[in-house]
Amino acid sequence: MYRLIEVLARNYEVIGPVVRDGAVVYDRISGADELPRGVTDDQEAGRYRLKPRGDAAFFGYASSPQSWKKFLHPAQVKLFEAEQKDGVFRVLEPSRERRRFAFIGVRACDLAAIRIQDRVLLEGSFGDPIYQARREQVFIVAVECTQSAPTCFCASMGTGPQVRDAGVDIRLTEIVNAGEHWFLAQAATDRGSEVLAQLEGDPARDEDLRAAAGRVEAAARAQTRAIDNRGIRDLLFHHFEDPRWDDVAQRCLSCANCTMVCPTCFCTTIEDSSDLSGAHAERWRLWDSCFSMNFSYIHGGSVRASGKARYRQWMTHKLGSWFDQFGSSGCVGCGRCIAWCPVGIDITEEVEAIRGSTHGKTNA
Ligand code: SF4
Ligand code: SF4
């Protein structure tokens, strides 16, 4: 791990997991010493804590409050500024540096989330040049999960915990056993092979491949949450008036945490500001959320004025109309919205409640 980061740092800005304020987050790192070594997480609905693992694993935890969208689709971007001088008004566009990121420790669910954001922000009718400039050179070192948190349900979404090679440069599986600690490293691209060629290591044996695959399969089997995706789009559409939406609205605070932590949510708003003299103004793009009243404000008021309407919109878009827009589910099963909801609302539980409900059905 030490050598891998050293090699990547020659050509890339290396971003990896670190511990800050009691949570695993992603930040720039200069060496493996900064990785969250020997820690694991304790996650449940509305709960996230770090605790020691009792070993020296580098990646012994599941999904964390932040995802890679922090770097690819930043929360705050200055779009332009304007200055008035001697009666002349000039618009200045900020120069966009093309950053070369190497992401260390991308999990299978987050890889699926990056592919979803690619579809939304690169491959639609209107590509986002800010996302494109950050995305196109990213070097991805994926790490397969060998343990799941109770909030994970990637296996049911078909996104993990096994890392499939599309979009990955190097795939790692960390094996920590009594007395042994090693990585299975597999290159999926030419540039991945070039990096691996600069590391020390032994060729993998069949038993190493089996050991790594066995750990990942065990992590999938250990998942206790799931979403039954059969007919889910139509299920949600047909339950538009289900009383369960009133039930969840009684609990939901409309705090927007679920959308902020979600690795696929991409909505933004625009905010303008000027100084008191009127000589300088700026336009910023900021993450927004379908849970805010302003998000659906049009002439005369907000289209989704109730908490019920906002939660229903979020879940029905994420799991239903996303298929119509982008050809896939908008959920990758990372479980972040479950752990980071302050009142512990659980998307898997809400789907089950709707599926089991006899209310609000209309004929297909
Ligand atoms: S909806 Fe929840 S579980 Fe699904 S991708 Fe977003 S944060 Fe993860
Ligand atoms: S579901 Fe939870 S996290 Fe999302 S807006 Fe409601 S209270 Fe906040």
Give an overview of the whole structure.
Helix 8 runs antiparallel to helix 11. The mean pLDDT is 94. With 364 residues, this protein is an alpha+beta fold. Strand 11 and strand 12 form a beta hairpin. The chain has helices at 2-9, 69-72, 108-121, 129-135, 154-157, 190-196, 206-221, 232-238, 244-251, 257-261, 307-326, 336-339, 347-356; strands at residues 13-20, 23-28, 39-44, 47-52, 76-85, 88-92, 101-106, 139-143, 170-177, 180-187, 268-274, 280-287, 297-298, 301-302. A six-stranded mixed β-sheet has the order 2-1-7-8-9-10. A four-stranded antiparallel β-sheet has the order 6-5-12-11, with no helix packed on it. A two-stranded antiparallel ribbon has the order 3-4. It has two domains: 2-221, no CATH class; 232-356, no CATH class. It has 13 helices and 14 strands. It binds iron/sulfur cluster (2 copies).
